[in-house]
Design goal:
CATH superfamily of the largest domain: Aldolase class I
Largest sheet: 8 strands, parallel, barrel
Number of strands: 9
CATH topology of the largest domain: TIM Barrel
CATH class of the largest domain: Alpha Beta
Number of helices: 13
Shape: globular
Structural class: alpha/beta
Order of helices and strands: EHEEEHEHHEHEHEHEHHHHHH
Helix content: 40-55%
Radius of gyration: 20 Å
Bound molecules: flavin mononucleotide
Number of domains: 2
Strand content: 5-15%
Amino acid sequence: MEVYLAPLQGLTDWIFRESFYEHIGRFDKTFAPFIRVQNGEFYHPSQCNDILPEHNTFQKPVPQFLGNDIDSFQRFEELCLKHQYTEVNINMGCPFIKVVSKEMGAGMLAYPDKVADLLEKIFATTNLTVSIKCRLGQEHSEEFKSLIPVFNDFPIEEMIIHPRVARQMYKGEVHYEAFARYASELKHPICYNGDIVSLADVEKIQALSPQVTRIMIGRGILQNPFLLAEIKGQGLSREARINRLRGFHGSLIERCKEKYSGDTNLLRRLVELWEYHAQGFEDGRKIFKQVKKCNTLAKYEEVIFKAINELK
Ligand SMILES: Cc1cc2nc3c(=O)[nH]c(=O)nc-3n(C[C@H](O)[C@H](O)[C@H](O)COP(=O)(O)O)c2cc1C
């Protein structure tokens, strides 16, 4: 099974990806959080910093485009080529209203003709390998039916599918059966994404769709960074896990010091990670409460390294 790291804006940035590679393990591919481009302009130019070569020394991520017009894609392509990227991903899954209302992200899925038009223009000119990350629709999973012939018309590298619809955000039922049906109707390699937190979840996908040999994991990795090793069949002793986790958090802190000035900004970034990460600890709720209360880096280090040393 190939295992990919999901893009999580504000969480799986270069700081996370570099620290993870250094201390925990290597994904088959990583994906950088989206870079939004609108009317040919970067919406938040600082988003481009995440894919700078000097920030991605161990493994180059696949940069992700969030936009819906060819001028914007070409602006994004220019940036990616400048940094020697050869593969990119198009976001057709972002469920946030401010994105969806602009017919971007999952908002594009309601307009198969527009998807076709954009892909037509992209594939007519691009020098990049292009994959797509999408949901099953905006309101209902049946919306995907009319997208299948559109996607099948283009040489898409792979389709990464999170089988929810935009209305659900990141919660509620995952449409497993619909995923299995649609996966077999698409001609591209398919990667499954959504709610994988254990080996049993991976086995469930394998049983459901035996032809799927790629999975993407986001929150499950934040919760249990060693899930990657478990899937790859690499057992780790408690001592090894503690040592790796200590190294990983040490690196996160060092890289955050490079990026943020002052404890407040740095702690805000790290606390966000613990919202998910603490769930992997037996007394996670208590730990997360303690982490949120920290008002200095020194206090934060005391709390988290104590929790890691006591890991079961
Ligand atoms: C905080 C947060 C930020 C996200 N940012 C992105 C993003 O930048 N691009 C993207 O394609 N998906 C993004 N996603 C969706 C994830 O990549 C993934 O599809 C989703 O979390 C389901 O997978 P999981 O259950 O393994 O986390 C984000 C999700 C969350 C919770």
